């Protein structure tokens, strides 16, 4: 198997057939061994609609289209993990079903891969499809992330990318549950290339990423690749303590010279509230990390597979790390 395309789907009955019709001709037209040796693995991430029967139809029509059905909604990262771990391709490309990750970029990714790249990122050349505020928050996030973590993530690269089997093997050997893939692949130090693509509007249905989910993804990203938010408090505390000491000395001297000074309600109040909120923020940051430590120590599987369509779930050639069967 040369190439595995991994497509996480949640309530996408209207999009799956269109996706296959779009992508298969692109792959078949390739002047590369991939053209005759690829698989498209859909991961049904707990859809409540007819996505799974549609996938079964697609498999009946074309055996290269396969599906894994998860027992419930595990989120896109879990679905991607499931797809990647059950894939057999020498290269793997995770891609969104809504055609926002333009499949026309695949040939360019494959040629860069043949030239020796281990990872080929799909970089969004435009983000006009996203709302202004989403673009702003995404931009802010990428900048903050890269400023405070050693695991840089490329600007405007999402999950759409080609990864060589080497990369998959390294990913799989990582013991953590929260595998924030965008950062982990940089951590390993692979040969990276990028391919630009234009990101169009979503063709069908609604985006499933609201600001709450984006915030959670951002938190996962930062806490999984940087401990700076934890350590910054000791510096801040030391700085404030120094200032407080100077101020205390100043007050003592002033009291000795000018006598006791009773008024001071406002400054007192401001100081109390200020330090109160600083402490709450630092507690909150601590909580983010402790919560993730809890999740990691429970060592639960990343996803649970209910059934496979066209996929042998017990294939001994496929080494899975964190899955369980229902
Ligand atoms: N998706 C998923 N599980 C989820 C949410 C989304 O598998 O819980 C899939 C979805 O079906 C799509 C991809 O992830 O194929 C990207 O989702 P969406 O287009 O809603 O996100 P956006 O493009 O707005 O980032
Ligand atoms: Mg989308």
Structure commentary:
The two termini are 27 Å apart. It contains ten helices and nine strands. The mean pLDDT is 86. Strands 7-5-6-4-1-2-3-8-9 form a nine-stranded mixed β-sheet, with helices on both faces. The protein is an alpha/beta fold and 326 residues long. Helix 5 runs parallel beside helix 8. The chain has two domains: 231 residues, Spore Coat Polysaccharide Biosynthesis Protein SpsA, Chain A; 71 residues. Bound molecules: uridine-5'-diphosphate and magnesium ion. Uridine-5'-diphosphate (UDP) binds next to strand 1 and helix 3. Magnesium ion (MG) binds next to loops.
The outline comes out as elongated
Could you give the count of β-strands?
9
Number of helical elements: 10
Order of strands in the sheet with the most strands?
Answer: 7-5-6-4-1-2-3-8-9
* CATH fold-level topology of the largest domain: Spore Coat Polysaccharide Biosynthesis Protein SpsA, Chain A
For this entry, what is the oligomeric state of its chains? single chain
Topology of this protein?
Layout lengths: L2 E7 L6 H13 L9 E7 L6 H11 L3 E6 L5 H10 L5 E4 L11 H9 L4 E6 L7 H17 L8 E8 H9 L7 H8 L3 E6 L13 H15 L2 H31 L6 H34 L4 E7 L13 E3 L1
Parallel strand pairs: 1-2, 1-4, 2-3, 5-7, 8-9
Antiparallel strand pairs: 3-8, 4-6, 5-6
Helix pairs in contact: 5-8
């Amino acid at each position: 198997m040369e190439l595995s395309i991994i497509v996480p789907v949640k309530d996408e009955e209207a999009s799956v057939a269109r996706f296959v019709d779009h992508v298969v001709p692109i792959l078949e037209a390739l002047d590369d061994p991939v053209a005759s040796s690829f698989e498209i693995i859909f991961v049904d991430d707990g859809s409540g609609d007819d996505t799974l029967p549609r996938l079964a139809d697609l498999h009946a029509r074309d055996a290269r289209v396969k599906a894994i059905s998860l027992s419930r909604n595990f989120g896109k990262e879990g679905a991607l993990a499931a797809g990647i771990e059950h894939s057999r391709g020498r290269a793997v490309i995770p891609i969104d079903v809504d055609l926002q990750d333009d499949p026309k970029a695949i040939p360019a990714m494959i040629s860069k891969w043949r030239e020796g790249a281990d990872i080929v990122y799909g970089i969004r050349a435009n983000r006009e499809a996203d709302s202004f505020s989403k673009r702003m928050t995404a931009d802010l996030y990428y900048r903050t992330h890269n400023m405070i973590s050693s695991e840089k993530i490329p600007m405007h690269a999402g999950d759409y990318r080609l990864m060589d089997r080497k990369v998959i093997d390294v990913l799989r050997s990582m013991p953590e549950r929260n595998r924030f893939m965008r950062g982990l692949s940089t951590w390993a130090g692979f040969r990276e290339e990028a391919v630009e693509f234009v990101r169009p509007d979503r063709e069908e249905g609604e985006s499933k990423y609201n600001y709450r989910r984006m915030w959670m993804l951002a938190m996962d990203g930062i806490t999984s690749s940087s401990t700076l938010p934890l350590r910054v408090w000791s510096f801040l505390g030391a700085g404030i303590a120094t200032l407080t000491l100077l101020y205390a000395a100043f007050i003592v001297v002033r009291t000795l010279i000018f006598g006791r000074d009773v008024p001071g309600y406002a400054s007192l109040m401001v100081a109390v509230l200020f330090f109160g909120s600083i402490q709450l923020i630092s507690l909150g940051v601590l909580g983010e990390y402790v919560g993730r430590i809890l999740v990691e120590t429970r060592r639960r599987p990343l996803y649970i597979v209910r059934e496979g369509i066209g996929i042998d779930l017990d294939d001994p050639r496929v080494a899975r790390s964190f899955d369980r069967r229902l």
